[in-house]
Amino acid sequence: MNIRHLPHLNDRDAWISFCQREQPYCFIASPEALVDFQTTYLLITLLEGKTRNGKAALKYSIGSRTSMEPAWRFIKACDFNLQLMIDGLNQVDFNGNVRDNSLLKAHTDLTVRKFFSKDKNIVSPSHMGLLSPMQRLPEVWNIAGVCRLLANQQFSHLRISSWHCPAIIKPLVPPLSAQKPYCWIC
Questions:
Q1: Rounded to an integer, what distance in angstroms lies between the CA atom of residue 64 and that of residue 67?
Q2: pTM confidence score
Q3: pLDDT per residue over 99-150, tens digit each?
Q4: Where are the chain's structural domains?
Q5: What is residue 128's three-state secondary structure?
């Protein structure tokens, strides 16, 4: 799965753009988190740069069974700032009734849960590194280069056979816009 990476979710426009995506599910660079807006729940998984095993990640679920309005009110109450949401959620005492907490501004429909993620395959993007687009073709192909090429869809034709794997690179970036196609042999 190719999970998009956004620089932040710290203003209203960023949240609206995030929710209008086909799948509102992205890594966020600052603060480092995985944010997923499911039907009526906002899920925030804290990654903190050191997360190598998703089960060690702390996760918050904010929302309602009936509508997405309580989650939106929570986002708005935090001034559309993901860092402010995380700071506030870290201060909530989850031993009592979280609806009584002043941070949540008495949203009666809103439920908030704190738990450890069950996703064993989530790794912090800062730990892995981002797959940035290729600016030029490498002299020697390696698996990292192929992953970058595929993740950024910098190919126009891919054919796999038992003896060779030619790929013709799209001219997406100026250094790759040569007259002849590039190929490599597996």
A1: 6
A2: 0.64
A3: 544 455 544 678 888 887 776 666 666 555 667 888 888 888 888 788 788 8
A4: 4-127, 131-186
A5: helix
